[in-house]
Amino acid sequence: MNTRGILRIIFILLLLGINIGCDQVSKSIVRHKLEYYDEVKLLNNHFTLMKVENTGAFLSVGNTLSGPLRLILLNLLPLLAVAVGLGFILTRELSRTTLISVILIVGGGFGNIYDRMRYGSVTDFMHIKFGSLQTGIFNVADVSIMVGMIILLLHAFFKKPDVVETTEEQPEQIN
Description:
Blueprint (H helix, E strand, L loop, with lengths): L2 H31 L5 E4 L4 E8 L12 H25 L4 H24 L2 E9 L2 E2 L5 H19 L17
Antiparallel strand pairs: 1-2, 2-3, 3-4
Helix pairs in contact: 1-3, 2-3, 3-4
């Protein structure tokens, strides 16, 4: 492997480490500093910190599953998806935008899977509300996944098509 390839892998792993680290540090602080369902209201009550444990996936989907189905749907399949994503970014030449967005998705996914496997649930703690518009309770890994998906979708939507140059000579025009 050449120096450029090694530096690329180091860059990817460094960004993944920072992403996962921010998620895990924020969850650790919340686990140690907040009691369950305590509310810390900020920004004129538009942003709230509140510790909850999500035993399911996104918006608690699957929290009533049990046994092998729970293990497969909430642990093994997401772990497989994160591993495939990691393999994808390590083995493909991607645009910088695509690479960063997939790193955000993989890092966020890993952060939540790690929690689910270690603690049996994912620590969520942020809530945003503006009038009747509000979010569910989420964490830094969820933000990472959503930002990565938004960047990836916007990049796909607004990406200019590659221009293919032809080597054929243009026929002379007759005046």
